[in-house]
């Protein structure tokens, strides 16, 4: 890669400091709202609503049915109306729905609200990925997406103790888990309103960039779009039928299956230490233990993505973590003490989060414009079918077998499959290493 110019360095630095923290904060709130059920379930909600493990898993996963139905239309709407307006609309909508969980009366109401939350949130994550991709050239994208993705493990690092603290004492006559839902939903509405005024859709509209920085970003991004050999004339509809897009969708399915199986059931597994090992933890302590895998995961995510930025994203930056995560997660449940279980789960979390930001550099290197909006949304849609499957299947298999070893072995199998598919895609010329600004022939999926 060429040595960055002073204009390039200053432009990318301003994007990293101005946009990424704000969009990452949005992602933090997004992930906290959708996973609040994992904290509420073992800490009063399952008892109060009389939920079995399968019912809890279904409630966790039904979110993704609503999410999936509107994912592609929502991202195409974002492309048409602009990220500033559309992301603000999404956040305010899901904040209102999330607040209603405070008064959920029964399992049926829980299913309905989780479905509605998925409808409200549809398009946020792929929209955020698309938005950030419109602001930085390909060779800087891995680092920018890594900064953005740090919000996800940090949601658990900060959110789990926060949720535990909120649930320890009911307020306004509410049970602790109900008050927790109310407290985590309100920031979505506030930040959604602020988003309308804070974001700009494209570099050319940013008042905080100098004319030289605007010119460099606009010209470089336009050049990349023009020289993308696969994306130059691809329409949104063709992107939806592209074989590489579907292969990437299946790869992402494995990652998301592992991510949400871990996210939804880790607090429940930790709660189960009481019966399995005779340990006793209060709600706040359970929250602290839940954070243990995610802090190292945030560090590994950043270091792994720095290496990917330095070398260019290679196949092994995605395939190796997928394989490690796939092997480690069932081993976690085969250990004989809580410390060993949490240690192996930490390896799994590190593996999943190391792969994800590098994975998302691949589709944005061969899809542009409406094709990028549709293709990214499709990958996220198919991948998030795993969000439903992971919750329901894991809960059902736990009820059937009486433990989590079998369901977590299924999780591991899907992640190993993702690693295999990534290697197959690369060998068929569908993925390799990321392109630099002046080396379009090396684009990861340009052949």
TrEMBL record:
It holds the Pfam family MFS_1. CDD domains: MFS_ExuT_GudP_like. Keywords: Membrane, Transmembrane, Transmembrane helix, Transport. PROSITE patterns: MFS. It is a multi-pass membrane protein. The keyword Nucleotide-binding does not apply. The keyword Transmembrane applies. The chain crosses the membrane at residues 15-32, 52-70, 86-105, 111-132, 144-167, 179-199, 245-266, 286-304, 316-333, 339-359, 366-392, 404-426. It is found in: Cell membrane. Its main location: membrane. Residues 19-430 form the Major facilitator superfamily (MFS) profile domain. It comes from the Bacteria. This is MFS transporter. It comes from Sinomonas terrae. The lineage of its organism: Bacteria, Bacillati, Actinomycetota, Actinomycetes, Micrococcales.
